[in-house]
Amino acid sequence: MNIKKLNIANQKPKVYEKGDSVMWTDKHVSKQLLGFHLNPEIDAASRTPDSINNTIEFILKCCNKSQMNILDLGCGPGIYSEKLTAKGHNVIGVDFSENSISYAKAQAIKKSLKIDYVCKDYLELDYESQFDLVILIYTDFGVLLPSERKILLENVFKSLKPNGTFIFDVLNDRNIKQKFIEQKTWSFENNGFWKPKPYLELTNGFNYSKEKVFLKQHTIIDETERIMNYRFWTHYFSTNDIVEILTANKFVNTKHFENILPATDIWNGENVTFYKTERNE
Ligand SMILES: C[S@@+](CC[C@H](N)C(=O)[O-])C[C@H]1O[C@@H](n2cnc3c(N)ncnc32)[C@H](O)[C@@H]1O
Predict the structure, then answer these.
(1) pLDDT(33) > 90
(2) Ligand 1 residue neighbourhood (C-beta within 6 Å)
(3) Which domains does the chain have, with CATH numbers?
């Protein structure tokens, strides 16, 4: 075992240094993730049914329009896309997980729902002035690095019709820093979340207070001694931070909404703030 390499992989990286592996599109991991999305007991990948229903109700109340053209970014297996379609809206769902998109497509056929699902990276969108509403749900806005966030906002702005609405949720900065704990853990699995064969997992949490971002890093070593590094950067924001970011990207009429979700864990309740903002022209 190359201990030197392992030691480097296990260190606190420079802020925003990317890992070498992507969880959502990995064949084995994306199968585990689909199971999480669809499990109503687990608040991972997708939220639990109470939170999802509150979110749908909030979105529809916020927009109060019939037959909207909606773009669901990072739609996963289509839980929100289906509910919005059932309410009479025209939905396009975009996700880069082939596994989630194939499942979503099969479900739409099974349930006779007309939903257009596209397997694509949402940083490479090419829609123009087409949507009344774009949504990005489950704190995915905060997962993007600042350079990616800028690309996403440009893409969303371009895809919206003039005065169209963008709704997303983020972790707010009120209490979250104390809840993100810097700690090191390890586990050994024979067939687990990351691989269908034996592996060692080293998990680290790192806080970067200046940038208001927390890193959860998973270092996976399998029997071939290959080392894989998965890094999840999660930002937390004040309302001023978000207004500043949106204003710099030409969005207007930004409003924030608190306590939309039941208080179940750190990804719900008072920790999550929803934002509604509009394309200005
Ligand atoms: C936390 S899940 C949320 C899924 C869904 N919005 C929900 O709440 O049920 C994030 C989703 O975004 C997708 N995703 C992440 N980055 C993406 C990207 N750059 N382009 C497209 N999809 C992406 C993942 O594959 C995953 O399905």
Answers:
(1) yes
(2) 24, 37, 45-46, 74-76, 79, 94-97, 100, 121-123, 137-138, 140
(3) 3-21+176-234 (no CATH), 27-171+236-279 (3.40.50.150)
